[in-house]
Structures are given as C-alpha cells and as structure tokens.
Amino acid sequence: xxxxxxxxxxLAALALAILFGAGCGGSEGELDGSHPDYAKALxxxxxxxxxxxxxxxxxxxxxxxxxxxxxxxxHGYPAVVNVWASWCGPCRQEFPVLQNLSARYGKxxxxxxxxxxxxxxxxxxxxxxxxxxxxxxxxxxxDILFSVGGAxxxxxxxxxxxxxKLLFLHQGPYRDESELEADVRRYALKSG
Length: 192
Prior knowledge:
Elements: H1 8-22, H2 38-42, H3 47-53, E1 59-60, H4 63-73, E2 79-84, H5 89-105, E3 110-116, H6 120-129, E4 136-139, H7 143-147, E5 156-160, E6 166-171, H8 177-188
Parallel strand pairs: 1-4, 2-3, 3-4
Antiparallel strand pairs: 2-5, 5-6
C-alpha cells in the first residue's frame, strides 16, 4: 500500500511555518564572529566621530532625549542609524553588513545603533558575538523608532544629513553590502 499524499493546504502551511521560523529569533548562521579591525579602520577619525567610536559596542541609556542630543552633537557629519533587536532574525543577518560599512565609511559618516524592545542582557550578549565600532541607544518602547518614521518593525535604518535633518528611512534589512553602500552614498554622502 502506498503512502497517502498530504493535502496541498497542509503542505503550504508547513512551508509557511518553515519560512516564518527562519526569519525570526535565533542565530542565523552568518555570524561567524569575525569583524573588521575597527581600531585600524577608524584611526584618525575627526574628533566628534572618534568620541562616538570610543563608546563602540556599548549600550547607552537616556532614551530619545540622549539620542537626539547625540544627533545634534554630530553637526557637520552625516549619520546612519540602525534600529535593531537581538531577537530579530533579519537584524542579526544584517549586522555583518553594518560591521563592514561602518569600518569603511566611519571616518566620514557617524554610525549609531538603537536597540529597541530588547533585554539589555540579550543585547549585550549579541554585541559580544557581533561587535560594532559604534554605540547603541537602548529603549524599552519604540520612541526613537517612531521619531525616525518607523512603522514599528525591525530593522530600520535612518539617514541624516550633516545638519541633523532626517533624509530617508530604509525599512527592513539590508541583504548585502552593495545595497547599504548605495544608500550611504546617496543619502549620507550626497552633499560631499
């Protein structure tokens, strides 16, 4: 007797469950622990950017007020701000792209993170596995995300000009370096 075929709706539901599960939580296998030599890549950064990178990989408090004060202190330098959470699968997949681009453009562009709706312990553990040369502001809600025009999902990446004006918000992950690099050039470096 042959095996009875599964009904098509059951197979479709199984496929959706697999796809949904692959995009949420846990390590994604692309995080191999390697990262650029940030000290070498960012040596000689202008003082405002060097001060930012001295806080690399730290989780900073203060919420939206501290975040907005930092954006203001970067006057004269464009900024790229990534909103992320350690439990977000697409955020985890995107981090190697952010590692490489922040090392490549960090002398001209300020990079910042915003860790939202995440536990401090989980975020710190994730950053120990995938360090970045810039700090992340922490928030329990989504005040900073909403201030940049985010709709509530993760990840989002905001681009500010040299005067601190928000120019563009990319919603969703950057899948490869060329995609993020194009937006860094288009929005962060468009005025020079």
